[in-house]
Amino acid sequence: MVKRILIATACFAAAGCASAADMLKDLSGWELRTEPAATLASVIDVRADGVIAVAGAPAGFLATAASYRNYRLHVEWRWPGKTGNGGVLLHISEGPMDRVWPLSVQVQTKFGSVGDLLPMAGAKLAEPLTGDKPPVKAHLAANSERAAGEWNSTDILARDGVIEVTVNGVLQNRVTASTPSEGRIGFQLEGTAYELRHVELTPLE
Predict the structure, then answer these.
(1) Which residues are within 8 A (CB) of 37 and not within 5 positions of it... i.e. 6 or more apart?
(2) Structural domain count, the chain
(3) What percentage of the chain carries pLDDT values higher than 70?
(4) How many CB atoms lie within 10 A of CB 80?
(5) Spatial CA neighbour of 114 closest among 141, 150, 81, 133
(6) What proportions of the chain, in percent to the nearest 5, are helix, strand and coil?
(7) Residue 110 maps to which CATH number?
(8) Which of 31, 112, 123, 160 is deepest in the core (most CB within 10 A)?
(9) Which residues share a beta bridge with 84?
(10) Mapping DSSP to helix (H, G, I), strand (E, B) and coil, where does residue 76 land?
(11) Is the pLDDT of residue 3 over 50?
C-alpha cells in the first residue's frame, strides 16, 4: 500500500503525467493534525464501497504529505446527517497558525457558504474580501449546494496562483495571485461529520 501511494506521489510531481488519481485510495500518504491529538483510525473510517467517513472532531485537519502546484482537483462530499462547517484546504504551508488551522486557502463547504474562498493564517488573495467573521471572497452565483444526504461535487483549478471553484457544475469563485500558490492539500475537521468519495487530482504540468 505504501508503494502504491509513493508511485502516485511521484506521478503527480512528474512533468507530463496527466492522469487523474484517487487520492484517498490509500491513506498512508496523509497526515492528521488535531487538538487534542487523535489517531487517524479514530477520525477516518474507510468503507468497503470507497466512501471515507470523516468524524469532524476533534478540530483540526487531514492533509497530504506531498505538496502540489498547478492541478485540477475533483472532490465529492456530503453531509450524511446534520449540515455543518468544513472545507478543502489548498496549498497548506509552514508558517503561522490560526488556532488549529494552517496557512492555506480554504474552499468553504460550510452549509450556505459553499464556494466561498477564505485565506487562512496569513494567506493572501488579490481580490477584495467581504465580511469580518471571517473575511472571505464570497461565492459568485446563487447557492448550488445540494440538500443534506445528497452528494455534491466541487471542482478546483489551481494554476500559478489562480484558483477557480465550480460547485455542482456552477462556477462559484475565481481569484488571482493567491499565495501560497503551492503546498499540501487537506480537509478540515470543524465539528460536523461528513463523507468523501472520488477525491481525484490531475496535474497540469
Answers:
(1) none
(2) 1
(3) 90
(4) 13
(5) 141
(6) 10, 45, 45
(7) 2.60.120.560
(8) 123
(9) none
(10) strand
(11) no
